[in-house]
Automatic annotation (TrEMBL):
Keyword hit for S-adenosyl-L-methionine: no
Lineage, highest ranks first: Eukaryota, Metazoa, Chordata, Craniata, Vertebrata
Keywords associated with the record: Hydrolase, Lipid metabolism
Gene Ontology cellular-component annotations: cytoplasm
MF annotations from Gene Ontology: phosphatidylinositol-3,4-bisphosphate 4-phosphatase activity
Regions crossing the membrane: none
Descriptive protein name: Inositol polyphosphate-4-phosphatase type II B
Region Disordered, annotated ranges: 412-461
Top-rank lineage group of the source organism: Eukaryota
InterPro entries, A to Z: INPP4
Length: 861
């Protein structure tokens, strides 16, 4: 027989003395208990009084001591305290089967005080023991000096479970492998912040709709309906947030709670997994992966498919049924939201810079004045380029047409013919013309809608001047030019030998207005001009805000209840995806604070986030994959900013542009490159690859449709290839020729018709790691298939990067799956140490994705 051992330890200042354990066994059917072996713990191992030791006993098979599931007899566990306090420092323990259903015998453990042992003897002794047992011990925490358990990491990652293994390399050396799994505080904090932002944004949207002013009865009724639906969503989100605030306890949502409505924004079973490899005379290596259930709206179900299918169907239906409102395609509504975001950010910024210019002008120094003026010019230029958009002008015309009593210039001649028949009608007027009914109600007429016009009872208002919007920009240009000219004049009067005044490029583009000459006291006149600029910018901002708010009113009105329900689904899926992404970003950032190449890539290019999915393209999992695809694609709207602070990771901004702030303590922040310290926004480059591996995928491949998987993999391969073309511009990537080779192989596999081609996942994972990216692995609940994938990846890394002996590969794989962190994850989720597979299912799995015997059984997941 042979034995495996685990240990569970906590942090203490003083280390206890090394322990030597002797094991005896008395099994049912055995009349002669026999001495097995002694086990010693080296002084540098974190074994303490609270350490938990687990003994796994295996039967002898034809004289060989192989650790296989077929000869596993039973296991038991005890703490070091139990042993030290026991009579004669000896324990008699009952051995239990793997499913804890029966007692199969006893095992006796004794502590022995041994004399001095030479180092060589200790090495020989422990080597002999580990030929039988690869798992060394288990730890709830790491030691205080561990890099992956420092103060920064402990602020975000909690409740760590650690397992340590010892494996033999091809040159007969020994590597120590430390596997740590932890929960993440961001599982709940990010979704709660997002929900609060959703509430805030929808509240602002209601106010913007109210600020549109007086509208005709038709549009006013639509507005009331939309506001009512926004109120309903806000109430639901407030109730959800209130429920989440009540929660205490674990920092993850277990897989059995994935259908809970009030938890729909929380990612499923989100954990981090870090493997640390310590080899003789080599620098320690770290490999991280985030495991999370597929971001999907489980509480809403998948009867009609997932987001990708629902959104496509929704857009086509919206086009055909939008007769009561003006249809704007998704790209234009996205542009409208972007304009709203720009207005909310730039207008107060310009106003603050204008006030700062006045304050600086009172000082005698000329250079600060020039710097502030330059910033004011740049921000005003951004303001102009963002808002001088055809969408804003078109929306202003549509809003004017929605005012009470409006009649377009074509209506007097169009009473007997539709708007389409007038060859002189502009495109905007065709799109936004309104047919007025006798009773005063109004219904917008689209080009394809041919209904008679009755306008006798409606007074003709003054026509809307389409050039009015352009004239508003002239006022902004005049004000800015006057400010620039006066500052130039001031500098000349002060006889400063500075460079010539800033260029008037922005103003010259907009207007050719001639600048006046200041003839009054310079500061008073500057104050007047600054106030004039602020007023003009505010007027432009208000007009733009109202126009794009009217566009968004159309979107909400055309969508009716279905569209807002889809938005709720998309909000929930995005929340899950963002929480996982933020967790991965924090983990990768903390690990790479001393990696100059990674930090340079971070601010120059962005961060690659590679999601690996094991969902099938059959039944409900198709809907999950469709949800996941949209949720991950939406992550391109996310940016990160690193700040100097102690506190939580926070996020803000509207639905289309999110910024997540990650705080670092002073010493870590000051070591960052200047671009990161200045608050540069860091892009996210998300990619998704999916390969189904279960029995449902077998059905899909033989009798169903796998086009969704093929499309996702092909599309994201092209994205990954584009990222590589950008990265090779950086010096640290110009020598990595293997990335190109891996990409070529991945491209071939993506287009190859091969069933359950898991090589796609292996290649994508390798490429991601070489691109300094973050790895995220998912299945339905991140519990079973995900565990098989993570353990396989870890053992593959040990083989390919650290020369794991080939004879140890399968043994290491089985050991990690039987006694490692992933079986602990199963226990945390369903209170049972069994992967949710049965024998028939596993026959359909690829070979290396099958767990060892005795570790699986069909349970409710």
């Amino acid at each position: 027989m042979s034995s495996g051992m685990l240990a569970d330890c906590c942090w203490f200042i003083h280390r206890p003395h090394p322990l030597t354990l002797c094991l005896f066994s008395s099994l049912q059917g055995s009349r002669d208990p026999m001495f097995l072996t002694g086990v010693s713990f080296p002084p540098d191992w974190p074994v303490y009084s609270e350490t938990l030791i687990k003994l796994s006993v295996y039967g002898e098979n034809n004289g060989h001591h192989w650790l296989t599931s077929s000869n596993f007899l039973g296991s038991s566990s005890f703490s070091v305290t139990d042993l030290l306090k026991s009579k004669d420092q000896q324990l008699s323990l009952s051995l239990r089967t793997a499913d804890d259903s029966a007692t199969v015998g006893t095992v006796v453990v004794s502590r022995m005080k041994m004399g001095e042992i030479e180092d060589g003897e200790v090495d020989h002794f422990t080597t002999d023991m580990h030929q039988k047992c690869t798992l060394v011990y288990e730890s709830s925490h790491g030691s205080v000096n561990d890099k992956d358990n420092g103060p920064i990491m402990n602020a975000v990652f909690k409740n760590a479970v650690c397992k340590v293994y010892r494996f033999q390399t091809v040159d007969s050396k020994w590597m120590l492998v430390r596997e740590q799994m932890a929960e993440c505080t961001l599982s709940f904090s990010i979704p709660k912040q997002l929900i609060a932002l959703y509430i805030q944004e929808d509240t602002c949207r209601i106010q913007e709709l109210k600020d549109l002013g007086e509208l005709s009865p038709h549009w006013d009724n639509l507005r009331k309906d939309v506001i009512s639906r926004y109120d309903q969503i806000i109430k639901e989100y407030q109730d959800t947030l209130a429920e989440l605030e009540k929660l205490t306890g674990p920092l993850f949502k277990p897989s059995c709670s994935k259908g809970q409505k009030y938890l729909e924004f929380i990612p499923i079973n989100l954990h981090t997994q870090r493997m640390r490899v310590m080899c003789p005379r080599k620098t320690d290596s770290f490999y991280d992966v985030v495991t999370v259930g597929a971001p999907a709206a489980h509480s809403q179900g998948f009867k009609n498919g997932g987001l990708q299918k629902l959104l496509s169907k929704y857009e086509s239906e919206k086009k055909s049924t939008a007769y009561q409102c003006i249809y704007y395609p998704p790209e234009q509504t996205a542009k409208a939201r972007e304009i709203l975001c720009v207005v909310s950010q730039l207008q107060p910024h310009i106003s603050a810079l204008a006030d700062q210019l006045l304050q600086t002008a009172q000082q005698s120094s000329s250079q600060p004045l020039r710097d502030v003026l330059k910033s004011l010019e740049e921000k005003t230029e951004q303001f102009v380029h963002a808002l001088k958009d055809e969408l804003v002008k078109s929306a202003l015309l549509a809003l004017h047409a929605a005012r009470p009593g409006y009649v377009s210039k074509c209506q007097s001649s169009a009473q007997s013919s539709p708007a389409r028949a007038d060859p002189h009608l502009s495109t905007a007027e065709k799109q936004h013309s309104v047919c007025n009914n006798v009773d005063g109600s109004q219904t917008p007429r689209r080009e394809s809608r041919e209904s008679p016009v009755h306008s006798d009872s409606i007074p003709h208002h003054k026509e809307y001047d389409e050039e009015e919007w352009d004239r508003v920009w002239v006022s902004v240009a005049k004000s800015l030019n006057c400010v620039i000219a006066l500052v130039d004049k001031l500098q000349e009067q002060d006889n400063n030998n500075q460079e010539s005044a800033p260029s008037h490029t922005l103003a010259d583009v907009i207007t050719s207005h001639k600048l006046p000459v200041a003839t009054v006291v310079w500061w008073d006149e500057l104050a007047v001009l600054v106030q004039s600029l602020k007023k003009c910018v505010a007027e432009v901002a208000e007009r733009a805000r109202r126009s794009v708010s009217f566009v968004l009113l159309q979107e909400a009105a055309c969508s009716m209840a279905q569209g807002l329900q889809l938005q709720q689904r998309r909000d929930a899926v995005f929340s899950q995806a963002l929480a996982a992404l933020a967790c991965g970003f924090a983990m990768r950032l903390y690990a790479g604070l001393e990696d100059k190449g990674f930090l340079r890539q971070l601010h120059a290019i962005g961060l690659v986030a590679q999601f690996e999915s094991l969902l099938s393209t059959y039944s409900e999992e198709i809907g999950m994959l469709e949800d996941m695809e949209v949720g991950i694609s939406d992550l391109h709207r996310v940016t990160f900013r690193i700040t100097e602070a102690f506190g939580n990771v926070t996020c803000f901004c509207p639905r289309d542009h999110y910024t997540v702030e990650v705080p670092l303590p002073h010493h870590a922040f000051q070591a960052l490159p200047e671009e990161l310290r200045e608050g540069k926004l860091l892009r996210v480059l998300p990619v998704l690859f999916n390969v189904g591996i279960n029995e449902q995928q077998t059905i899909a491949e033989r009798f169903g449709d796998i086009s969704l998987q093929e499309r996702i993999n092909q599309k994201n391969f092209e994205i990954l290839e584009g990222i590589y073309c950008t990265l090779i511009c950086l010096p640290c990537f110009q020598t990595q020729t293997d990335i190109k080779e891996l990409l070529d192989t991945l491209g071939q596999n993506v287009v190859t018709k091969k069933r359950k081609n898991v090589e796609i996942l292996w290649l994508a994972g390798m490429i991601c790691r070489r691109m300094n990216g973050i790895r995220l692995t998912s299945c339905k609940s991140a519990k079973d298939r995900t565990s098989m994938s993570v353990t396989l990846e870890q053992c593959s890394l040990l083989r390919d990067e650290h020369q794991l002996n080939k004879d140890y590969f399968v043994r290491a794989l089985d050991c990690m799956r039987r006694e490692g962190c992933r079986i602990e994850n199963v226990q945390k989720n369903i209170k049972c140490r069994k992967y949710a597979f049965n024998m028939l299912q596993l026959m359909a799995f690829p070979k290396y994705y099958r767990p060892p015997e005795g570790t699986y059984g069909k349970v409710d997941s």
